[in-house]
Automatic annotation (TrEMBL):
SMART domains in UniProt: S_TKc
One Pfam assignment: Pkinase
Protein name: non-specific serine/threonine protein kinase
Superkingdom: Eukaryota
Cofactor(s) this protein cannot do without: Mg(2+)
Stated family: Belongs to the protein kinase superfamily. Ser/Thr protein kinase family. CDPK subfamily.
GO BP field: autophagosome assembly; regulation of autophagy
The enzyme's E.C. designation: 2.7.11.1
Residue span, Protein kinase domain: 7-248
């Protein structure tokens, strides 16, 4: 075990693109935290990493919602930057879906309601997440926590942005087409998450953006028979979040 500042790193619980995540506790307490460790050399190798990191830190400082991950503090040593967050004991939603194959309707709708609660707090602060997907949604005692805000962006309610960031199978059609987009893009991503919770797969899946866009434009959303007992209003509600507008 390694001691840094007032924390003891216990075990590695995650590996991201830029660093490792450890479960930690404060010295002589039973208070647990998640600490992301990024080598300072990574910031020299990836100039945008500083922007992504501070983007997340400054955004999370503004949000106080039980369905958004809580940021605690950051500090650095000679070799590393340490980002401290609340600890979540349930892994992420992607792992949860993989274990379950597909969720019971009541479970999926409960988690989706929590996601909407977290999303509402972001929208009130004019924050576009831009990378909503199950692997960026954490679980703690069955409470959903939206996390990973490196790609988020402040945007006024009627403004648009155009940068393509995120994971293609969760991206709204307007992003895939390189068109301007706003909060409706996050709503699309939430709809894809709900669909995946219910059916164990995304509504549209392909490894290339052109073929993915072809599916969205030409193939209606399929409501699989595996969950034919889902009430019709809920099936319709999910369909409306992941179907393209006529202009796309």
């Amino acid at each position: 075990m390694k001691t840094i500042d007032k924390y003891t790193l216990l075990n590695q619980i995650g590996q991201g693109q830029y660093g490792k995540v450890y479960k930690a506790n404060k010295h002589n307490t039973q208070e647990y935290y998640a600490i992301k460790v990024i080598k300072l050399t990574r910031f020299k190798q990836l100039p945008k990493l500083t922007q992504f990191t501070m983007n997340e830190v400054e955004t999370l400082k503004r949000i106080n919602n039980p369905n958004v991950i809580k940021f605690i503090e950051l500090f650095n040593s000679k070799n590393n930057l340490y980002l401290v967050y609340e600890f979540c004991n349930g892994g992420n939603l992607e792992e949860y879906i993989q274990r379950s194959r597909n969720l019971r309707e009541s479970d999926a709708m409960d988690k989706f309601a929590q996601l909407l609660n977290g999303f509402e707090s972001l929208q009130k602060e004019n924050i576009l997440h831009r990378d909503l997907k199950p692997s960026n949604i954490l679980l703690h005692d069955n409470i959903v926590k939206i996390a990973d805000f490196g790609f988020c962006k402040n945007i006024e309610p009627f403004d648009l942005t155009q940068t393509m960031v995120g994971s293609p199978i969760y991206m709204a059609p307007e992003i895939l087409l390189g068109e301007p987009y706003s909060f409706s893009a996050d709503i699309w991503s939430l709809g894809v998450c709900l669909y995946e919770m219910l059916f164990g797969r995304c509504p549209y899946e392909d490894v290339t953006i052109p073929r993915l866009m072809y599916q969205i434009q030409n193939q209606p959303v399929t409501m699989h028979t595996i969950l034919a007992d889902i009430p019709l209003p809920n099936r319709r509600g999910n369909r409306t979040t992941v179907e393209k507008d006529a202009h796309c």
